[in-house]
Design goal:
The structure is a single chain. This protein is α/β, with parallel strands linked by helices. It has four domains: about 70 residues; about 110 residues, Helicase, Ruva Protein, domain 3, CATH 1.10.8.60; about 150 residues, Rossmann fold (3-Layer(aba) Sandwich), CATH 3.40.50; about 60 residues, no CATH class. The protein is about 45% helix and about 10% strand. The strands form four sheets. Strands 5-6-9-4-10 form a five-stranded parallel beta sheet. A three-stranded mixed beta sheet has the order 1-11-12. A hairpin with a 4-residue loop joins strand 2 and strand 3. The relative contact order is 0.10.
């Protein structure tokens, strides 16, 4: 980011922290040079009362950092100036939810959320772990006509069937050991609002049948009671699994799948929207700065370093990386050394050519031979199975690692790493080949 824009950002926050309000506007000329910027900062500092000595000291320190360090972004509690860190945002009347990102996938998702929010239809949010599926659910609720009523969330993976029944449908007094009083379930708590059911793929067929009836009839029965209770809760479910595949494998009820996926929304993984990494990093850095009441600088080299990682843990992994760097950093200036997790794989000096198709075929073991092999440990057996699966995919798409990675539903970088670990030679792909 050019130095003059950083100075504008600095003056913006200075005026905001000093309580200048609308007076901040004259401090943002279109052509702000370094000297002019420092004069304006000095002018702003003089307007801060004595009880804001810490604020004054912080901004003085940041002016020095602008002069000394090549800076990508500076963070401090509060909002970014317009255009400095803009993302796709959605807001409700009672609270707001920000979906950060300007990539094509996130812009499309934001548009779909706005349209889905205007409808009472059931929504199925699909995405890998750590992509922000609950944030999507909260955005839908915040934009809907139900926003004045509660959004209630439950994680199905954390509860057994009996507990899930009691949690969602409630129970009568004495329904089971320990039920000392009647309890309303989350369906009743979310009446008039939204019920977010996370990890829906982790439920049993028995529970799925009960949930299906609740969705169809809009009524529930508390555990231990016979009388139905009418409920009006909009359902937003989420999963990190392929439910269509689960239906084909008879692990998930087909009728419930169709009932849930009226409006399917796909949340793209972070590796498919690498252009959003900078905005997300700035957002998480801002949040850490506000929590710790400190200012941080993210260098251009550090940002470039972050953008090279493929983030199997998605946005959650990036957030954790920022928080770890802030907690362990020796100074307020974050460099690539503060993000050791994001070291790209060491390039091979002279990569061997991709094996020919006949050579690959010769390495694929027939199932009968695999079955007749002597017993091995589980780890070795899984390694052999993984090797055979990758070899078979390479035979089907010889010389095309991108096609193989797409077939196996992994990134090209991940495929290359697995091939190296399993002793399969091949050229190193570009780090962002999958994008």
């Amino acid at each position: 980011m050019p130095k003059n824009k950083l100075l504008k950002f600095l003056v913006f926050h200075l005026a905001r922290r000093a309580g200048l309000g609308q007076a901040a506007r004259p401090f943002q000329p279109k052509n702000l040079g370094s000297d002019d910027g420092l004069q304006l900062v000095s002018k702003g500092l003089s307007s801060i009362s004595d009880r804001r000595v810490q604020t004054r000291a912080w901004f003085t320190n940041q002016v020095q950092k602008i002069e000394e360090v090549g800076v990508v972004t500076m963070t401090r509690e509060g909002e970014w100036p317009s255009g400095a860190g803009a993302g796709a945002g959605v807001a409700g009347e009672h609270g707001s939810v920000r979906l950060i990102g300007t990539s094509k996938g996130m812009v499309k998702l934001g548009e779909q959320i706005r349209r889905a929010a205007a409808s009472p239809a059931t929504v199925l949010v699909i995405g890998e772990s750590g992509t922000g599926k609950e944030l999507v659910a909260r955005a839908i609720h915040a934009l809907s006509s139900r926003r004045r009523n509660p959004l209630v969330a439950v994680n199905c993976a954390a509860l057994t069937d009996p507990l899930l029944d009691s949690e969602l449908f409630g129970h009568a007094k004495g329904a089971f050991t320990g039920a000392m009083r009647a309890r309303r379930g989350l369906f009743e708590e979310a009446d008039g609002g939204t019920l977010f059911i996370d990890e829906i793929s982790e439920t049993s067929p028995t529970f799925q049948a009960k949930l299906l009836r609740a969705l169809q009839e809009r009524e529930i029965r508390r555990v231990g009671e016979n009388g139905p209770i009418q409920v009006d809760a909009r359902i937003v479910a989420a999963t990190n699994q392929d439910l269509a595949l689960a239906v084909a494998e008879q692990r998930f009820r087909k009728d419930l799948f169709y009932r849930l996926s009226v409006v399917p929304l796909h949340v793209p993984p972070l590796r498919e929207r690498t252009e959003d990494i900078a905005l997300l990093a700035r957002h998480f850095l801002d949040r850490c700065a506000a929590r710790l009441d400190r200012g941080f600088v993210l260098t251009a080299a550090a940002l470039e370093h972050l953008q090279r990682w493929d983030y199997p843990g998605n946005v959650r992994e990036l957030e954790n990386a920022i928080e770890r760097a802030v907690a362990l950093a020796a100074s307020d200036v974050l460099t690539p050394d503060d993000f050791p997790f994001a070291s790209p794989p060491t390039p091979i000096p002279a990569p061997a050519p991709t094996p020919t198709q006949p050579a690959l075929r010769s390495q694929v073991e027939p199932e009968a031979e695999v079955a007749n092999q002597p017993p091995v440990g589980l780890a070795e057996a899984l390694k052999r199975a993984e090797r055979q699966i990758i070899l078979a995919a390479l035979v089907r798409s010889p010389g095309n690692l991108a096609a193989v990675a797409q077939e196996l539903k992994i990134s090209s970088t991940t495929l290359w790493r697995k091939m190296r670990r399993l002793g399969l030679s091949g050229p190193a792909p570009h780090l962002h080949e999958e994008t």
